[in-house]
Amino acid sequence: MISLSLSLAALPSISVSASSSSVTQYPWVTTQYNYNRIGYTLSPAPKTNHVLWKADMFSYTNAYPESPVVVDGRVFIQLITSVGAFDAVTGEKMWETNLPHYPELGSVRDQRISGFAVDKGVVFLKDADWLYALDEISGQIVGQFNMSAYYRPDWEAIPSVSRTGRSAAPTVVSTRSTIYVSTREGTLFALTYSYGKFTLLWTFKDNRPLNSHGTIAAAPIAVGNPASSTTWKNTGIIYQTSVDNNVYALNATTGAQIWNFTSIGQILYGATYVSGKLYFGTYTGTTAVKPIFYCLNATSAAVIWTKEWPITGGGTYMGPAAAYGMLYVGNIKDYNLYALNQTNGATVWNYTYPGNQYPYGAPSVADGMVFQSTYASSKGNNLYAFNAMTGALVWSYQLSPIGNGYTASPAIADGRLYIQNDNGGILYCFGDGPTTTSVSFISSKLTLNDTAWILGTLVDSSPANVGTPIAGAEITLTYTKVGGVSTFIANVTTDSSGSFSYAWTPPSVGAYTVSASFAGETPMQPSSGTAMVQVEPAAPTKEQIAGEVIDELPPYPQPPTKEQIAGQVISQLPPYPEPPTKEEIAAEVINETPAFSTTEIVLAVLVVITLLLVVYNMFALRKLQK
Predict the structure, then answer these.
(1) Hey, what domains does the chain have and what are their CATH numbers?
(2) Is the pLDDT reported for residue 300 higher than 90?
(3) Pick from 31, 209, 345, 608: most CB atoms within 10 A?
(4) Predicted structure pTM score
């Protein structure tokens, strides 16, 4: 029994550039989702081929990329001689760690990583002859174990080209704190891990002759709860398939063989466990033997049913996915994806890939859809999505125009799909993307009864498509005033440039907040924007000004009647005295008569008599003349 830990001082340098932006509700913790290897998750899945983001995984080719792993808001991927973590939402690189050990013999392919498993904040992976433990947050290597010391002695004598290829992801059983990992050399290791230290429990070798594909290469199966991918319970049995044409059932504690089953053809990359049954297909290469798809009793190895593929040679390259009572598996010889009935193996539907495309990656299933990657020199590398029940093509996407590389099995988590494309070194993320709705006014100040032109745009804000216009989307316009409720204005539709406009007349003066809202429509997420406008009173007309002046004048009095005028005049005259009596008049006259002398009186009498005589003579003369 040997244990090995690595001091921090001996660790290679790492680069860290970001922190995770989210957690993961539906984690994809290892190749084909969980340690039953069913390839099925309860997560939503992309309904279209909308690319949310793309990340450059640095230049490499022909690396047989493994399925990404998505845990705690991070996507973990292989980068030949390093491993990287990317933010699951934005695609920003969080860290990259170079792995320190390389094989002395063999090509670059010997150095590639063979899948991941993440458990309790630790990333486990195998690269060539070493098993590593990395801190998932920092990428720091916290433990490593050299497996080559336990290989068969004839391994180093094998030509380097025959030692190349791929192994598979480790299997981690949390309740036992045990990691199970297979190698191309043909050994299955069981180790415990604690605080940076690996401890070897046991090894199992199939002892078959080596060939160009090695021997045990597939990921071990630990039976557990398929609805959980964070805490894994095991029944005490580990299942391991091998290219030596065998399936092995081993005691998880001791490594003792419980049973083995020999198939017709090699079992390249694994099986799937569902409800006490093991499902796997075989590969017969270029021989005249027809490959077989098997259903075994996982307890006894008894054959429940078999399905013979229709043509000789080829067969199943990757393990099946299991969901909805069906098994989804590709056949690389007849270029088909099959949906088989889990109960009897009958074909429910099949889809023939155009242009002789190889269904290379294991299918992944989520949200009523099946996803699989393909490659062909004439068609490039492609990703396909099918209706899981009918096989109808939902969408496809060309990952690269030249098909000289490989793509891995997709990982699906929280409504997003992640896949590595060997050719070009790109990590793709498909899913609904964020949007940006903007809204504004030509003028932020208006007068009452003026037309307010509402202008806006709706664009894709996905990192892979920032600023791309979204046409044909419905935008809802509403307004609110301070302390008021939201009031509907209109629904408008974006044009080919993602723009919209609307002529609106505010109903009264005041400050308005206008909202433009996009409710979201696959593959775009909802968004909204607001703008403010101030409405002032309108300038008054001449008539309005005149009316206002008149309104401000005091009330004009009614014209007075004659009686009112007479009364007014009389009221303004001085008081009129009472008329004097006779006695008062006589007394007044007497009082005002001057006192005369006797002479004056006599003279006055004479004058009066003279005047009377003159008057009399005149009248008499006139009478005589007549």
Answers:
(1) 3-430 (2.130.10.10), 435-536 (2.60.40.1930)
(2) yes
(3) 31
(4) 0.80
